[in-house]
Specification:
single chain, 11 helices
Length: 327
């Protein structure tokens, strides 16, 4: 049991390289406990393929209850070929999707920073990525990954038809927009909202809602950009961006592109933040952007930097320790 003054960190190592990268991160966590007075109670739980093997589901109801009671979740990575034969609804990734949906983790923060020592890892010219510091805010609990109807059906006369639905409400758009405005206000004061308002109804609503919210943030310069143009501009002149806010699908694609600018998915962290729940806690999950990399699992060569930096984001956003986050 955690003491009354202790924060609760729920740790889920996941699959593949998850145990390795989380293990190295917990060494860093331990240092902050020993040297910086971080009062933290660590709980461990299974998620993903490991949970399927041990508990019969990618995440159990008991583990979900622990997630609701925690101050933050540190996540490794899930998935691998051992579970690829399972139906999509039973695969390891469903545990992560359930966490995002039920905890209402609607704002996914994906920073892309180019560290000078790692600039050579980028495919872009050094002068294009010098000083790179972009934050992508991706809406995470709505859009095409969650909307209904969806599915694959047989057609009369032969063939099959697949349907995925893209749907957004003004509430879902506004709350992630405001999260992005708040972040931009504390950075360089520039926010670019990305959509496809020229061809999509959801894009038109998204743009209208973001524009309406801008009135409450006069110190933030708001611009709009179509998603395809944004993808091009990121490799043409990434320095023009500070904070990007966009929907679930475009955020998935563009945040991976910004990660590649820095050199590798394996270098960057992420935070998934939610609404304030009971007893006054803001839900939050922290994880590296990369996958489980089963081909190198157990070899001791996986880079734990993204997971360690995810804990740094936890220090900043969940534990209100910005100086420790910088350290």
């Amino acid at each position: 049991m955690a003491a009354a003054s202790e924060l609760i960190l729920l740790v889920r190592v996941g699959d593949g390289i998850g145990p390795e990268i989380v293990g190295e991160t917990l060494r860093v966590v331990g240092w902050f406990q020993d040297h910086r007075g971080l009062e933290l109670h660590i709980q461990h739980a299974l998620t993903g393929g490991a949970a399927i093997d041990a508990e019969g589901a990618a995440i159990s109801d008991h583990t979900m209850a622990e997630a609701f009671d925690s101050d933050a979740i540190l996540f490794g990575s899930v998935g691998g070929p051992d579970w690829d034969h399972l139906p999509r609804s039973q695969r390891p990734e469903t545990g992560l999707l359930r966490l995002r949906k039920e905890l209402d983790l609607f704002a996914n923060l994906r920073p892309a920073v180019c560290y000078p020592a790692l600039a050579g890892a980028s495919a872009l010219k050094p002068e294009l990525i010098a000083g790179l510091d972009i934050m992508v805010v991706r809406e995470l609990t709505a859009g095409v990954y969650f909307s209904e109807p969806r599915g694959i059906s047989d057609m009369v006369g032969g063939g099959r038809r697949a349907i995925d639905t893209q749907a957004y409400t003004s509430f879902e758009s506004e709350r992630v927009a405001r999260a992005a405005f708040e972040l931009a206000r504390g950075r360089k004061g520039r926010l670019c909202s990305v959509d496809k308002a020229n061809v999509m109804e959801t894009g038109q609503l998204w743009r209208a809602v973001v524009s309406s919210s801008a009135g409450d943030y006069p110190e933030v310069e708001l611009s709009h950009m179509f998603a395809d143009n944004c993808a091009m501009q990121l490799v043409r002149k990434p320095s023009q961006f500070d904070v990007i806010v966009t929907d679930n699908l475009f955020g998935d694609l563009l945040s991976d592109e910004t990660a590649a600018l820095s050199g590798s998915l394996g270098l960057l962290p992420s935070a998934s933040l939610g609404a304030v729940g009971e007893p006054g806690r803001a839900r939050a999950l922290y994880e590296p952007i990369h996958g489980s990399a089963p081909d190198i699992a157990g070899r001791g060569v996986a880079n734990p930097l993204a997971t360690i930096l995810s804990f740094a984001m936890c220090l900043r956003h969940s534990f209100a320790r910005p100086h420790d986050a910088e350290l």
